[in-house]
Amino acid sequence: MNKEELKPVRTLKKNHTSLTGKVSNSDGDLNSFESSLERDFILLTNFDSNVEKFVEQPTKIEYHDEFGRLRHYTPDFLVFYRNKALDQPYYKPTLVEIKYSERLKKDRDILKPKFDAANIHCRKKGWEFKVVTEKDIRTDFLYNVKFLSGYLNSSEVKNEDINLLIDSISEMEIATPLKLIDSLSSEDKVKATLLYTIWYMLSNHLIGADLSIRLTMKSEIWSRI
C-alpha cells in the first residue's frame, strides 16, 4: 500500500455507546473517529509537522483467534512521515491501534493474537506497529494542541507583526511571550494583538516551544525561520 492508495477499508458507522464523528485535517479532508481518544489522536497527528499523511481503518489483517478460528483485524490508523530533516530520526510508516489501558488489561488474551498478526504484517511491509493509550495521548502536549488549534487559521494576523516578533526573538537571549509583548509595547491593545500573533506563530510552527510542558506566558520560545 503506497501513500496514493491510502483510504479506509471500511466505513465507520454511528455508535450510540461511544463518541463518533469526523475531524478536518490540514488538507481539508475529514478523518473519522470512533472514540474521544481516537479524536484526540487525530488532533495530535494533524498538528505534527513531520506527518505527511494518515488514514483511519487502513487495512484488514487475517489472524487466528484463541480457538483457531480465522478472523480479520482492522487497526485504527496508518501514519506516513515526511522524514525531510536530516538531523531528525527516521520514522517508518506506523500502523497504530488506539486502546484505553484498562481495555488492554481486561482483553489481553483476546487482543494478543490481533497484535501478533499486526506485528508480522508490519515486518513484511517495513512498517512499525504501535499500541497507543490515553497515557500517551492525554498529556500537556494535547492541552497545548487544543489551545493552539484556535489560532491555526486567522486572517487577523499581520505579516509586519510576525516579522517584528521574529526579529525580537532573535535579539533576546531567552524569549517568552511575556517578555516579548512587554518589550514591544506598553499599550494593552497592542500587547493583546502581539500575543494573539505569538499563539498563531506557534500553531503554524513559525516559532518553537517545548510543547510537552503546558504553555504559559513564561514559556521559552524560539524562532524556527
Give a description of the structure.
With 225 residues, the chain is of the alpha+beta class. It contains eight helices and ten strands. It has helices spanning 36-47, 101-106, 108-125, 134-137, 140-149, 159-171, 177-184, 188-203; strands at residues 21-24, 30-33, 51-56, 61-64, 70-73, 77-81, 94-98, 128-132, 207-209, 221-223. The strands form four sheets. Strands 3-6-7-8 form a four-stranded mixed sheet. A hairpin with a 5-residue loop joins strand 4 (61-64) and strand 5 (70-73). Helix 1 (36-47) packs across helix 5 (140-149) and helix 7 (177-184) crosses helix 8. The radius of gyration is 21 Å and the shape is elongated. The mean pLDDT is 89.
In short:
The protein has 225 residues and is α+β, with helices and mostly antiparallel strands. It contains eight helices and ten strands.
Question: Features of this protein?
Answer:
10 strands, alpha+beta, 19% strand, two-stranded antiparallel ribbon, 4-stranded mixed beta sheet, 225 residues
Question: Which helices and strands appear, and what pairs or packs with what?
Answer:
Elements: E1 21-24, E2 30-33, H1 36-47, E3 51-56, E4 61-64, E5 70-73, E6 77-81, E7 94-98, H2 101-106, H3 108-125, E8 128-132, H4 134-137, H5 140-149, H6 159-171, H7 177-184, H8 188-203, E9 207-209, E10 221-223
Parallel strand pairs: 7-8
Antiparallel strand pairs: 1-2, 3-6, 4-5, 6-7, 9-10
Helix pairs in contact: 1-5, 7-8
